[in-house]
Amino acid sequence: MYKEILPVIDLDIIVAVILIIILFMYKRKFNMNDKKNKVYVSIIITTTIVILLEILDKLILLNHSNSVIPITKIINALGFAMSPIVPYLWIKYLSEDFGIKLNLKILKIPIIINLIVSLMTYKYGYIFSVTDFNIYKRGTLFFMPMVITYIFFIISLIIIYKNRDKISKTEYIILMLFELIPMIMAFIEVFFDNLLLIWGSVGIAIITNYIYLQENLLKYDALTGAWNRMSFESYFYNKFMNKNKEFCLVYVDINDFKIINDTYGHNEGDIALINISKALRKSFEGVGKVARIGGDEFIIVADICCETKLEDRINNIYLELEKLNEKRDKSYKLKISVGCKKFNDDYLDLSEYIKEVDELMYLDKIKKKSNNCEKI
């Protein structure tokens, strides 16, 4: 029996150690004031605890003395009690990530019921029982925690599918795999009770997701959520090389940003950058990639070939900022200058094209200063 469970324990130990390392790295690299990040940390901690309980359980089951039976019961009761918590936290994480409101209080009801039944199992053997020789056996309600877990995973899948337009194709695949792999492993484990696949697969899914989040740190500007310069340059280069596709470049600069920083503080300046970024991304949603390439400068690569449609999108930016300025009711207004131009094959290199669009933006800035007026 020891030879049978040793590979499982080894895998669980490796996954648990990696999760603990990820936990410390995540708390160091990500903003822990963000509710979404707090939930993700809770997922890591809960999964690690369950995996450690699984390791202890399999080690203790090697001892067939009745003196360790209470320990076996406690470990299994805690494991079953905690099993639906991870998918519940995942639903909570997705709701924060996608910015949707869910009635999570209803989902707590099956968790509480499962907790009560799991704890009562210690005495009454509802979910599992332990023989006098410290041998684990499934009980009549063994499937209850798994059914609850499956329901939560299905809810998560529905959330991801409904919000697939808000994320990239790569992120969509990563999130779906986070759900599907543990579900498949759980299904296999139902028919082969000697296999322990669920929590190791959940741990591996978390590790995979963390790697993707790390890649996002390199891809996105941490403050505004827009792409960073490196991501823009890579994407723009591919666009430039693929000259059979038409696109436009839009250069945006925040007017009087230095005054905002000097007068109201850098925190207010950060808020201004975040709001501008949101307005740009909303205005070009589905047709353009927004990147922050400097302190107060943004650039948009838009898959638009019609100048009228491009003007409509730019006007949408002004409308979004107008709404935002009215809503914020600040003593200063968020204002921008814009330069834009459609790409054509006459440009021999990237810098020539960017420079021309940049110059158009500065002409717009000079014009607005000289007229002392804005569209907003």
Structure description:
The chain has 376 residues and is an alpha+beta fold. The chain has two domains: 2-219, Rhopdopsin 7-helix transmembrane proteins (Up-down Bundle); 229-371, Alpha-Beta Plaits, CATH 3.30.70.270. The protein is built from 13 helices and six strands.
What is the top-level CATH class of the largest domain?
Mainly Alpha
Number of helical regions: 13
The structure class reads: alpha+beta
Radius of gyration: 27 Å
Low-confidence parts: none
CATH architecture of the largest domain: Up-down Bundle
Which sequence of SSEs, written as H and E, runs from N to C?
Answer: HHHHHEEHHHHEHHEEHEH
Number of strands: 6
**How would you describe the shape?**
elongated
Biggest sheet architecture: 4 strands, antiparallel
Question: What would you call the quaternary organization?
Answer: single chain
Strand percentage: 5-15%
Write the layout of secondary structure elements.
Layout: H1 2-29, H2 35-60, H3 69-82, H4 85-98, H5 104-124, E1 128-130, E2 136-138, H6 143-162, H7 169-191, H8 198-219, H9 229-241, E3 248-254, H10 257-264, H11 266-283, E4 288-292, E5 297-302, H12 307-328, E6 336-342, H13 350-371
Helix pairs in contact: 1-2, 1-8, 2-3, 2-4, 2-8, 3-5, 4-6, 5-6, 6-7, 7-8, 10-11, 11-12
